[in-house]
Amino acid sequence: MMPEFQIACPQNLADAITEASRLQGEVLFVNGGTDLILELRSGQKKADWLIDLSQVPELQSLPTLENGMLKLRSGVTFTRLSTDPLVRKHARCLAHAGEQMGSAQIRNRATLGGNIASASPAGDSLPALAALEAEVTIEGSEGARTLTVAEMLAAKEKTLKARELVTEILIPLAEQGIERRSTFTKIGSRTQVSIARLNLAAVMELEHGVIRKMRLAVGAIGKAPLRLYEFEKEWEGKAVKAESAGKIAGEIAGTLAEFLTKTVDQAIPGRHSQAYKRQAVQALAFDVVAELFPEQGLGQGGGGNGGR
Amino acid sequence: MAEDKGVKQLATPERQAAAAEQTLKYVGRNLPLHDAVAKATGKIQYTGDMNFPGMLQAKILFSPLAHARIKKIDASAALALPGVAAVFSHENTPQTLYNSQVWFAGQEARADERLFHDTVRFVGDRVAAVVATDKKIAAKALGLIKVEYEELPALFDPEEALTENAVEIHPGGSPFFEKEFGCGNPSETFKQAELIVEDRVETPKIHHAAMETHVCIAVPDHSGKITVYTPCQILYSVRLVVAEVLGLPYNKVRILKTPMGGSFGGKQEVTIEPLAAFFAQATGKPVKIEYNRQESIISTRTRTRTIGYVRTAVDQNGKILAREVKTIVDTGAYTSNGAIVSMAMGKKLFRLYRIENQVYRVQAVHTNTPVAGAARGYGSPQIHAITEINLDHVANRLGLDPVEFRLRNLVHPYDEDLSGGPSLGNARIIDCVEEGAKLFRWHERRTQAEAGRSTNGRFRRGVGMACATHSNGYFGAFQDFTTMTLRMLEDGSMILNSGIHELGCGTVTTMKQIIAEVLDINPDRIEAPEGDTETSPYDVGSQASRVTHICGAGALKAARKVKEIFRREASKILGCEPEDVVMRSEIVWSKHKPEEKMTYGEMVRLIQQKNRTEIIATETYQAADNPGSYGANFVEVEVDTLTGLVRVIDLLAVHDVGKAINPGFVKGQIYGGVQMGIGLALSEDLQIDPKSGKAKGDSFARYHLINAPDMPSVEVLLIEKGGDLGPFGAKSIGEIATCPTAPAVVNAVNHALGTNLTTLPLTPERILAALNE
Predict the structure, then answer these.
(1) Is residue A156 very low, low, confident or very high in pLDDT (cuts 50, 70, 90)?
(2) pLDDT at B20
(3) Nearest to B680 by CA among B213, B303, B173, B299
(4) Contact at 8 Å (CB) between B371 and B331?
(5) Predicted pLDDT of residue B8
(6) Hey, are the CB atoms on A301 and B704 less than 8 Å from each other?
(7) Is the pLDDT of residue A248 over 50?
(8) pLDDT greater than 60 at residue A302
(9) For chain A, which residues make up each domain, given as ranges?
(10) Which CATH architecture has domain A201-296?
């Protein structure tokens, strides 16, 4: 049952922030509303005022490249993430997360800003943003501040204070002459329209056949996605020569699978789902590495979850 | 079909069917559902869309506890809320005990349900209700009701219900129903058997997941009559229970079947109608009850959770010598159809394979879990899961191909039911299996899957199949008949008055096609309104897979009678013998004067004017057979051995339907049945928490149906060989469609992995656990 609330429809960002500080009672921002509306209906969240961000042009404009960054506005939908040429080129793992989140209907409405703000442990955008070392701009009546996703995930408390909203997401581009490959994959209880039981994003940057950067983040085994720092370090600086790429890819997949199992064991010891997740997470390792080394044909036919 | 003159041909059912095939004009054609356009364009009025002047809305307060005595209910704050008309609980409602599944007056059934009890027996049991001017106020008022409970020990495990000192949910405890029946001498045969293969198979509680949740409206009138608008399956069952609870004569309760947004058995039993009817009676206002998804999942009906122990004895040639099947049927907190579904399950055991020595034992139990009831297949999906998974296990132990093993044991056309049930009729399961195996390339695919396995890769393929049988009505168990009135109007259009219920399967159009065939009239010129207990003749309802076979035969009989009357009366007008009256494409003439033609409507007018009568017939058709409908599914799956996720790649469903009146409808039933069957095999489960009794799968976020991306391509092959008493030889499809699917999928997974998984659904966790064993 939808409770009663009032709604404000600011026409620009400044008004949205002013309205937020001016209004009395419990004030919440809404954009796609795919989570919030359900939470309001069920009584999990209460609001006296909703501030509708869907009419704020600053939050809706398309992704752009600025100063070596891919700049996304918080109102970008998951459908847009999955199809936008700039996102697909520079932040492919985020595009993959966009493809695999929810249903087509949800993807058409749900926004990246909302996914960051609700910070669900099983959220699909956060591992991708973590692997991309993204920064998030948060604004409120006291001004704007920028946090790295790593900082956000490490924070004990909720990073968004009352009446603050996510406005921008900045993703550093790969440096000149460096090839970035990235991907995202998840395991749900079915192929589509499924909340992640596990998800994994990976970014790998290569320069003249050497791994310059390896960034991975695994989700749904704790409150927030975990970066795999130790594993990343192990592989940075390793050469991936064409003739030995298959062997290296196989090694990466094998060690990553083991590493992920260990990560699950440490993250959710004794949890009912541990027995399943410690094994299933290995599938993510093989799927992700197969995507990072597409020329090796490591996919085993039929594809994992979704058969992409 | 050309017949050699002079050579006497036997009029076999196949031959009759084949001959009829060539001349059929409307039967066998894919006409659309009569209300498809209205549904697709949003013009149809579902019950949820209906409103009446002054209508109130009721919301129910459901128990958060699995078992508790209600010590005190304080509704004062709720009653003080403006807009609240009344609050109801066990303190101010009839304490009449009833059973939600009785469908005819005088039917014996354990009555243990009340509108509201002073004891709650599962999470989701009814505690109280608020009736208010709108839903929001009613919901707000629910939150103001204070209930004090005294918690009682609760019981969730059906096998625990059978232990000594188990929690007693109803007086006498469990089992509340026990039965044993069979044939031959299984115990002696087991002693001599060369191979005995045993399994324990478990099927879960599942939700029907109709798009439309449970909803009804009750409207009182000045005379004390209550009219209930409900998307139900059995009008006369609703009338019976409502009249009983309200203490009204049957003719003061009127039930109208409204457009159905899906049921699958979920709306077969009488759940919310007596509540709405009583609230309407008490407040003097129309009252609507509309459940949300969570309420429909936990507080209406589910499929029974069933645990089966099966032992099968075979000889070295793969002949089944004897079988013993024991089931424990968990009906949840109230009896509902627990006893009847327990029996229905057992009867199927004697109608699929030639097993001369067989015994079935059942114990039905109560648990503090959501109430089970009718669910598409009425026990068939459960019992076929139990036995068909076991049969693959047997075949495996014998080293025999599962198709070959089954072919050595399947029933033949016109076999008898060895447990004493009705004859199996033209049972064409062998055709289903033989033709299906050919079309599916069974042996080739099986071999390929086995060859691929040796590489020990991450993804493994498996190929499996299963067979099933289901009924065609109640003949042999309960009275089964239907009465229909068919009229031809002065413009030649027609009205069929009957107690039919359109559940979305195409019943209305099917009746029209049958009548159209007999009278050679465009089906669009026939109205076949759904049932209304005040104006429709009696019908047993849309249950037991009886509608096409029995009601269809009723429509055929009524149409033939109308044709006879029409020709008799027309012959007087045309001055000829009745058999000389030709009726073709709504034009009538005497074969002696083909130049004098008139429309059916013109003739009806003349009959009124000159013969002073009308063209009307009321006919009762009494079921006289109950052949088996048969089906086989062939499935290929791919299992991800790392994630335990199963992808059903391809499925062939072969069904012996006698004759498809409307092949499009038949295929539609099969596609949907397959979707439900895969869900039962792989993902659907209410997941009752063993500590709290709360259903984890109480929303679609956690209760996963197979959706479009996970549906395989489904191919359908129909075996149409007629031979029984249904109209044009038609047999049922609605329930059998889902029966072979789950075991076929499970057998394919077990083939892929070399496992013997027997607890449904085969969740990724269960699959990985089995692989790690």
Answers:
(1) confident
(2) 53
(3) B303
(4) yes
(5) 43
(6) no
(7) yes
(8) no
(9) 6-52, 57-172, 201-296
(10) 2-Layer Sandwich (3.30)
Q: Which fold has domain A57-172?
A: 3.30.465
* Residue B765, min C-alpha distance to chain A (Å): 6
Residues 6+ apart with CB under 8 A from B28: B21, B659, B660, B661, B662, B663, B728
The answer to whether the beta carbons of residues A71 and A51 sit under 8 Å apart is no
Q: Which two tokens stand for residue A37?
A: 């509306």
C-alpha span between B223 and B221 (Å, rounded) = 5
> Please, what's the largest Cα pairwise distance for chain B?
90
Number of Cβ within 10 Å of residue B576's Cβ equals 18
What are B588's two structure tokens? 């009538």
Which residue in this structure is represented by tokens 């019992």? B383
User: In the prediction, which pLDDT does B501 show?
Assistant: 98
For the annotated catalytic residues of B, the residue numbers are 735
Q: Tell me, what's the ipTM?
A: 0.92
Rg over CA atoms, chain B: 27
B47-152+214-290 folds as Aldehyde Oxidoreductase; domain 3 (3.90.1170)
Residues 162 through 201 of chain A touching chain B, CB cutoff 8 Å? 187, 189-195
Q: In terms of CA atoms, which chain A residue is nearest residue B134? A: A1
The first and second tokens of residue B340, run together, are 């009847």
What is the pLDDT, as a whole number, of residue B364? Answer: 98
Ranges of chain B with pLDDT below 70? 1-22, 454-456
Among B361, B394, B381, which residue's Cα sits nearest to residue B467?
Answer: B381
Residue A279 sits at the chain B interface (C-beta within 8 Å): yes
- CA of B44 vs chain A CAs: smallest distance (Å): 24
Question: Which is it for the CA torsion A248, A249, A252, A257, positive or negative?
Answer: negative
Type of residue numbered B632: A
| Alpha helix ranges (H) inside B193-329 | 235-246, 273-283, 293-299
Question: Given an 8 Å threshold on Cβ–Cβ distance, is B458 in contact with A300?
Answer: yes
B643–A305 CB contact, under 8 Å: yes
- Write the CATH number of the domain with boundaries B305-472+625-772: 3.30.365.10
Averaged pLDDT of chain A = 93
Nearest one of A140, A106, A105, A139 to A120, comparing CA atoms? A106
Q: What is the pLDDT of residue B16?
A: 56
What are the chain B neighbours of A300 within 8 Å (beta carbons)?
457-459
